[in-house]
Amino acid sequence: MTPTDPPAVLVVKAQARAMSQLLKAQGHADVAYSTCLHELSLQAGFENWQAYSATLRKAAGLPPKRQLTRDAQQRRLERA
User: Fold this and answer.
1) pTM (predicted TM-score)
2) Helix 7-25 and helix 49-59, axial crossing angle in degrees, nearest 10
3) Do 10 and 53 touch, CB atoms closer than 8 A?
4) Which residue has better confidence, 64 or 24?
């Protein structure tokens, strides 16, 4: 969470935290918070959390956060 997150982003992050905690309580310790953010993004009709959060930020009149370059995105995929 950053101080510039609009309320809509904070709500989705809280939902992802709650989802993650619930899944862990049910024995799914391997489900990460980021996976929950991604799932909520898909449910809202977006490809990923970056696209969803950028749309929420734009709706709140804020600029999107810094985007990764294609090279940085590729390196991140190769590490996964």
Assistant:
1) 0.75
2) 150
3) no
4) 24
